Amino acid sequence: xxxxxxxxxxxxxxxxxxxxxxxxxxxxxxxxxxxxxxxxxxxxxxxxxxxxxxxxxxxxxxxxxxxxxxxxxxxxxxxxxxxxxxxxxxxxxxxxxxxxxxxxxxxxxxxxxxxxxxxxxxxxxxxxxxxxxxxxxxxxxxxxxxxxxxxxxxxxxxxxxxxxxxxxxxxxxxxxxxxxxxxxxxxxxxxxxxxxxxxxxxxxxxxxxxxxxxxxxxxxxxxxxxxxxxxxxxxxxxxxxxxxxxxxxxxxxxxxxxxxxxxxxxxxxxxxxxxxxxxxxxxxxxxxxxxxxxxxxxxxxxxxxxxxxxxxxxxxxxxxxxxxxxxxxxxxxxxxxxxxxxxxxxxxxxxxxxxxxxxxxxxxxxxxxxxxxxxxx
Length: 377
Ligand SMILES: C[S@@+](CC[C@H](N)C(=O)[O-])C[C@H]1O[C@@H](n2cnc3c(N)ncnc32)[C@H](O)[C@@H]1O
What we know:
It is a single chain. Helices cover 32% and strands 27% of the residues. It is α/β, with parallel strands linked by helices. Strand 15 (355-357) and strand 16 (360-362) form a beta hairpin.
């Protein structure tokens, strides 16, 4: 079973789009409205490809297509943060700032992954009054409990100087950095943000999985590590050089690809557009002041899917000594190492009793594999 969008989020989006009863059997009735949104979507994507931001102009298309995906990405990362940084997420009062919040996908995704806290305060900042209005509509429909406070501010924060003295447990920038910084991301911007982050808090940056934007994020990661004032916590489980930097010529870059089941309305909308909507592709970084309490020793990030070859299966791991192939011959499949067959890209795994060969790790009969965290469930 793949992940799905929570039903109340789906309903709220459809309500704002004025197609609340859209289903496969009613799609014909909504042809005109669907046609409008599809046309907007085409232009939105063309503009994105040319680095022109137009989500304000095509807010309906953005809400129909980007918001559900960006919501899911923030939710996936929120769950991972909850697993690796329980001290941040199990607080009674959690204070979250969403920079470039748009319609609110980032803060909403975090809320749905961190619901264990008792009280939430969300602040959304954006330069677009129209998108803040849309965000207000969406959060009014979804934040019904009395334990949630929300403040929305129209502000340009590209200098990283925030219009508040508040300290936040989490600052999230979901798909907003590319607009704020079309070229490289200055580390000074991140340092300034941390003036408004609590001592044990963190900053989450999500970007599209495009090669140039993902590599920019890797460059930021390298700068944060070299600078030594802050610490990169996720997705990297070590602070050595990104192994994929060394194999750039092979056209590799660190990004996530996660299968999900889009809601029916997205499948209906996608008719005629035929986009690959069933995979969430994104890059991300989680930065904090200190290391998280849970050590990642002997845990590795899986950076490929399981690849089938003649007589064997393999995947690639990100390790402090570089990219490593983990190989299991089909004839070596045992009860002990059966978890190998469940490994997916983005998982965090540990491997015991492996056999180190020249250039790869070999899964033997008695090798034990544990998946510590999966982004897919
Ligand atoms: C691609 S949208 C992302 C919206 C939302 N975070 C999401 O994940 O769906 C980028 C957002 O950043 C906002 N933005 C761009 N530059 C900004 C700036 N300098 N200060 C605040 N917001 C900015 C835009 O108005 C837009 O809403």
